[in-house]
Each structure stands twice: as C-alpha cells, then as structure tokens.
Design goal:
The protein is α+β, with helices and mostly antiparallel strands. The protein is built from ten helices and eleven strands. The strands form two sheets. It has a seven-stranded antiparallel beta sheet with strand order 1-8-3-6-9-10-11. A hairpin with a 2-residue loop joins β10 and β11. α4 crosses α5 and α5 crosses α6. The longest helix is centred in the middle third of the chain and has 21 residues. It is globular and about 60 Å long. It starts with a strand and ends with a helix.
Length: 263
C-alpha cells in the first residue's frame, strides 16, 4: 500500500502517462468525471474508479465539491487476481456496500500513520482484503461480479444492461429469471438495493449523462428517446432527482467547465 486518503476534496488530476501503481477512488459526495480513451464517464456517489498502472486518464470534479476516499496499492500477481475477477482495466464500478469500502480506507489511513513493522504487514493484509471485497461488492455496467445471491437475477440484469432503451416490463424481467413478479421484486430489492424501476431509471440516467458529455450537439429529445424514456417531463424529473440539476443545466455547467479546462 502506497497511500490513502479519506474525505478528500478531489481536484482535477491529469495523468497523460497514467499512475505507476493501482489506485481506487470511492465517490462519497458530489459528482466527478473520469476521461479515458476519448470518452467521459460520470462518477457519482456509490461508484468507484479503479485505475490500472500506466493508463492515461483525467479525472476532475463536476460539482462544486467532489469528496472521495482513495487508496493506492500494488502487489504480487495483483493483475492476474483482478483479471480473474473480470476487472480487466481502468473503469467505473457500482459498489453495493460503499460504507464497507470506506471503512477499509479509514483503516488504511490509520495504518499509514502508525508506520510500524506490524502496520506494514497489516497493510498488505488490508489490501488483499479490499480486493476480496471488490470480488463481492463491485459490478460493472449493471452486472454483479460472481455474487452468488444475485446470480439468479443475471438474466434480468443483462436485459436491462443491453436493452434499456426500449420498454421493459416486470413480467418480462421476472419470467427471464423464472420467478413470479412479486418474488422477483423482493429478491431484486434485497440484492440490488433498488426496486427494478429505480434501477432501470438509474441505468438510463447514467447513459444519458454519457451522451450529454460526449455528444454536445445531440438534442435533449434525441437523448431521451435513445435511453428509453417516453416523457420529457418524467426524464427531467428523474434526472434532477438524481443529479440535482436539470439536463440543460448539467450540459451548460459541463460546457463551462470544459471551456475553462482547455483555455
């Protein structure tokens, strides 16, 4: 373990040649953006960024204050371990239990302060314990990684991930998992911590943010249709509830911030 920070007010970080070791940032408050390979990805509360060594990237706050917990680490055969967990490169992940990861980062900060032989050994144990947590708690693009209690939901999660732009109904999703609607809704809420409709909206809003960030000339109405909302008023209501601003305000803020960064 090379460093850690908790309740850190993150500022813009531009690394054209990447970072020499692995790093994880957990968003706890506000809203940031990760840029890599010419694409922009929103980093919202409850999401984590895993940065692989030597991969070019930029990340920066999109809200007035972006608070993260972070840890940088390395280790023998760590690349192979992450690869087996289907974490194959820099990316943004949903975290099922952010507090558990946040508590591990707090422990890491305390161990770095101690700087004793025992604390160095405990640091190594802590890093591999956190990687194990990633195995159970992280999922990417709507599909949990090897989480046994959620495996029965994977058919529905794949439908949501791949077909979010069309109308999705509970009967179809529950049938894909071989359950009644009532049983499906209960299991879904227990495993994902969202009702199915909330989760679908969350996926659609995240996709709409990617379009707003990467396609500046795309009309809001076109984005609404692309991500599967049927009503502009409903889309704007859900967007503002999740992001705190309207889609138009979000786009203006981003355009302003983008201009200031490139000037």
């Amino acid at each position: 373990m090379y460093g850690a920070g908790h309740d850190y007010k993150q500022e813009e970080t531009h690394r054209p040649f990447g970072f020499p070791v692995y790093q994880m940032l957990l968003c706890t408050e506000g809203h940031g953006i990760l840029e890599m390979n010419g694409q922009k990805y929103p980093v919202l509360p409850g999401k984590a960024v895993i940065l692989y060594p030597d991969e070019s990237h930029i990340y920066y706050p999109e809200s007035d204050s972006w608070i993260v917990s972070w840890i940088s680490f390395g280790g023998y055969q760590l690349h192979d371990l992450l690869d087996k967990m289907n974490i194959k490169g820099t990316g943004v992940f949903d975290v099922e239990n952010p507090k558990r990861i946040e508590d591990k980062v707090k422990q890491a900060v305390n161990l770095l302060v101690e700087q004793s032989p025992a604390s160095r050994l405990e640091s190594s144990v802590l890093v591999y314990s956190m990687i194990l947590d990633c195995y159970y708690l992280f999922h990417k693009q709507g599909e949990m990684l090897y989480k046994e209690t959620a495996s029965i939901l994977l058919p529905a999660l794949r439908i949501i991930r791949n077909e979010y732009s069309r109308s999705l109904v509970l009967e179809e999703l529950s049938n894909a998992c071989g359950m009644s609607i009532q049983h499906f809704c209960r299991i879904f809420k227990e495993a994902i911590q969202y009702r199915p409709s909330e989760y679908i909206n969350s996926i659609r809003i995240t996709k709409s943010i990617e379009l707003l960030l990467n396609h500046h000339d795309m009309k809001i109405q076109d984005i609404i249709e692309r991500v599967g909302f049927k009503s502009e008023s409903y889309f704007c209501s859900v967007f503002k509830k999740q992001e705190g601003v309207t889609p138009g305000q979000f786009r203006k803020r981003h355009s302003r911030n983008n201009g200031s960064r490139t000037s």
